[in-house]
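Much of the work behind modern protein science is quiet bookkeeping, done one molecule at a time. The fold becomes a row of whole numbers, each drawn from a learned catalogue of backbone shapes. The protein below has been through that process, and both of its lines are reproduced in full.
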Amino acid sequence: MAEEERALLGPDGGDGGSAAPPRALPAVCDPSRLPHRLLVLALMCFLGFAASATTTRRRSRRRFRGLGTVIFSIFVCVGQVIFALGALVNAFWLMEVGRFIFGIGGESLAVAQNTYAVSWFKGKELNLVFGLQLSMARIGSTVNMNIMGWIYSRVQDLLGHTGHATLGLTLLIGGITCLFSLACALILAYLDKRAEKLLCKEQGKTGEVIKLTDVKNFSLSLWLIFVICVCYYAAVFPFIGLGKVFFIEKFQFSSQEASAINSVVYIISAPMSPVFGILVDKVGKNIIWVLCAVITTLASHIMLAFTFWNPWIAMCLLGVAYSLLACALWPMVAFVVPEHQLGTAYGFMQSIQNLGLAVIAIAAGMILDTRGYLFLEVFFSACVSLSLVAVVMLYFVNHLTGGDLNWSAKKREKLQKVAANEKEI
């Protein structure tokens, strides 16, 4: 580490007292250059493939993020092992315990992943980064849906029978991805700590304290982003969870056809999310893109509810809109809160999203049992409509307060450089 510091800062430690030029590190080892950030991005993406606030000061928060990410990954691994063991011994309660532990680690890991993204890419390619993370997550979901069944069949052939033992061994094999996620977490923690020292990231520390009461200081713009998040995803994930039977009953699809169309949202989002991320980075206008995504999603649900048009049209539109919204919505959190509150903000957003999904999933099941799929689609359309109202409100609030949510990444980076130069003067 000392040699790396001298390579970046020069033999004199960077105080300007020596005439010897600094010896540059290779691009992939230099945290200030793009190849190294791409390496970090790859690790961040694979970190979420398998699967908040603290009262310490800013420097400790950076270290806690690295340590926390490792701990959360360990929770994921332990939860998966317990889940698999529950299947092996045919103990459903043990499987529930495993999923509970897995959920603690998995959701917290998503918060750490978002915070890493902002720390390394804010003001640069942030929308693209969130798109790539979503893309990798969707690839993971697609791999899980298509590979785990094949693994189960191979284990069944090996054991010569089906049952809970076959399921348990299959889940243990699937847990290999969790170990891979843990390895990525360890490498990320090291690289983040290394970059902190090499780039002297703590020179501008504020000494501000992070506490749960930060929530009451969240701006109206941030609360509107939370509302958009909860109402939008409430009309996507629960619908996909119930969608297979919907397509079988309304459109007389076979089970295989229904599974194919139900998964098209994730299949589309895998390649389209990075494309939309680049687009939003170049053009800016995050709120406008979110508005387009919400309107498209609303149109998709209306088509599914009130027409018998080919449902592939509506589901493809939903896949495109879902990809666009994730690229434009999640990075906006970093634009409306100070850096020391990022973990709190993303953690709170993740928490209320999951709470909303849990409540909506229960409500959706009750509506389906008592009223049928037409009323369920009307319910999902109402959720998206609430999200649409929140987007329109966010647009006007941002305009009236002189917010920067519609800036492009290029303009944002330019203004940040100007502000940094003025601070040095």
Summary: The CA atoms of residues 79 and 270 lie 26 Å apart.
